[in-house]
Design brief:
Layout (H helix, E strand, L loop, with lengths): L4 E4 L12 E6 H15 L19 E4 L9 E5 L6 H12 L9 H9 L8 E4 L23
Antiparallel strand pairs: 1-5, 2-3, 2-4
The structure holds zinc ion (ZN).
Length: 149
């Protein structure tokens, strides 16, 4: 079965084959960003890191092993574990339990994969282009009658 997703290196803008790269984030930087944010908004139950104007989420990097360097404290996902839409969903569930996740741009990485109109040239992207009008995700042959227009 063909892969749903392709990993494209943020550094060289080339696809990353299995075993040759990863998606990763600097956990220590995210925890520092979260600590700074909590110092200001920690007691406000309505505050959300992602929607705070001055908060700068720590970016996930998609890269070949030889492009760029790993942070000292990295959360790393090998690209072969991010080839299907269900992989992306599973990692999202896994990351929801991590304290550092809200201070990263994981949501943006997922949104760029779901909606390539956001001019993404690297990161995790769909293997098959979709119409710019949007529509269901995945293989059109698997769509049900409700998806027909
Ligand atoms: Zn590269």
């Amino acid at each position: 079965m063909a892969d749903d997703l392709v990993a494209v290196c943020d550094f060289c803008i080339q696809p990353i084959p299995d075993g040759e790269g990863m998606v990763e984030v600097d956990i220590a930087a995210a925890e520092r960003a979260l600590k700074r944010w909590r110092a200001r908004y920690g007691t406000d139950p309505g505050a959300v890191f992602r929607t705070t104007p001055w908060a700068r989420p720590v970016a996930w990097a998609t890269r070949h092993t030889d492009c760029g360097t790993s942070p000292r404290f990295a959360f790393t996902i090998a690209v072969h574990r991010l080839r299907a839409w269900t992989d992306l969903l599973r990692w999202g569930v896994h990351l929801a339990d991590k304290a550092f996740t809200p201070a990263t741009d994981w949501h943006d990485l997922v949104e760029r994969a779901l909606d390539p109109r956001q001019a993404a040239v690297s990161g995790i992207l769909p293997t098959r282009p979709r119409p710019l009008a949007g529509g269901p995700i995945g293989d059109p042959r698997l769509r049900g009658p409700a998806d027909e227009e």
